[in-house]
């Protein structure tokens, strides 16, 4: 009986994740820069993805990151400037901020977290 409950729980979790990923699609899916970022990430060309990512407006950047999986966010974030990451952490949703912070090495994580706290204080 326990095994059946665990399997049902696993199936429901997968179903909710699928629904959540569809709900998090970016509203700017027709934007060629957004499409270039997602295409470059899928192909593993994170250098090109970073260049196109930095061309986007901040809300579009947050939207793009919300549609990506954790591995792609990690690879993309490692090459982005600390100030950009701090802004995204300060103004993005908490789960996205945590994912970005976890993807950074310890020393860089501290710097980004300090800058994001500073951004949050200035916004308030």
Which key features would you list for this structure?
124 residues; globular
How many strand segments?
A: 0
Mean pLDDT: 86
Backbone shape: globular
Describe the sheet with the most strands: none
* Straight-line distance between termini: 51 Å
Order of helices and strands: HHHHHHHH
Radius of gyration: 16 Å
| SS-based class | mainly alpha
Strand content: under 5%
Helix content: over 70%
In the predicted model, the low-confidence regions spanning at least 5 consecutive residues are none
Q: Provide the domain count.
A: 1
Secondary structure tally, helices: 8
What does this structure look like?
The protein is an all-alpha fold. It has one domain (2-123). Helices cover 81% and strands 0% of the residues. The protein has helices spanning 2-23, 32-43, 46-55, 58-67, 70-77, 82-91, 94-103, 106-123. Helix 5 crosses helix 7 and helix 6 (82-91) crosses helix 8 (106-123). The chain is globular. The mean pLDDT is 86.
């Amino acid at each position: 009986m326990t095994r059946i409950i665990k399997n049902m729980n696993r199936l429901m979790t997968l179903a909710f994740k699928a629904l959540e990923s569809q709900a998090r699609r970016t509203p700017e899916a027709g934007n060629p820069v957004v499409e270039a970022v997602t295409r470059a990430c899928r192909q593993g060309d994170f250098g090109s993805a970073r260049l196109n990512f930095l061309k986007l407006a901040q809300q579009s950047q947050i939207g793009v990151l919300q549609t990506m999986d954790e591995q792609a966010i990690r690879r993309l974030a490692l090459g982005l400037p600390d100030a950009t990451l701090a802004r995204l952490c300060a103004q993005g949703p908490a789960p996205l901020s945590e994912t970005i912070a976890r993807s950074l090495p310890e020393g860089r994580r501290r710097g980004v977290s300090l800058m994001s706290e500073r951004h949050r204080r200035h916004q308030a």
